[in-house]
Amino acid sequence: MTDNTWLDRWNDRYSSEEFAYGTEPNTYLKEQLEKLEPGSILFPAEGEGRNAVFAAIKGWKVSAFDISSEGKTKALQLAKNNNVSIDYQVGELQTLNFREEQFDVIALIYAHFPADIKSSIHKALDQYLRKGGLIIFEAFSKSHLDYVLKNEKVGGPKDIGSLFSIDEIKADFPNYDSIELVEKEIELNEGLFHNGTGSVIRFTGRKR
């Protein structure tokens, strides 16, 4: 079950008129999608829809979910503004009606789930990706805490358990061939809450 404090936090963040992380897609996601022929794609923890809408503009058949109804409202408005449609559901993964091997790509972009469930969600998502399909992942690394101490505006969780390591990604996605798996320092300029230098894990993996 979702902790109500967690849900309230995201509804509060997404309830303002401005987009928390902007309306432009994440750079890494954009780079990866531009290498691919459009197909079906799932965005877990998609928030206000910037990445889902970008994929839809590029011709992908887009599904997304989040626990925040406020996020969905903003995402559907952004889709409408761009003359595209996305299938956006509100709820936790186990309550949603995705099918096995439904997607060609699953994109996890700053999908920081609570520490006690993040690995189980990754493992559950695997069933919805077809063999040969791709995971595209970018999120803050465990090293990122040092960056937050220097600059809170860079954003990201402040508890180490919600952050990621290369070893965790390997453990969560054991049946994938790694196209890229790196920890690196990047410059972020995404809306109100991702600004400055941070440390991320980037992973693109193909399901065996």
TrEMBL record:
Q: Which Pfam families match?
A: Methyltransf_25 (PF13649)
Please list the residue ranges annotated as the Methyltransferase domain. Answer: 46-133
What's the domain of life for this entry? Bacteria
GO BP:
methylation
Protein name, per record: Class I SAM-dependent methyltransferase
Q: Does the keyword Transferase apply?
A: yes
Q: Which UniProt keywords apply?
A: Methyltransferase, Transferase
Question: Which molecular function terms from Gene Ontology are attached?
Answer: methyltransferase activity
List the CDD domains: AdoMet_MTases
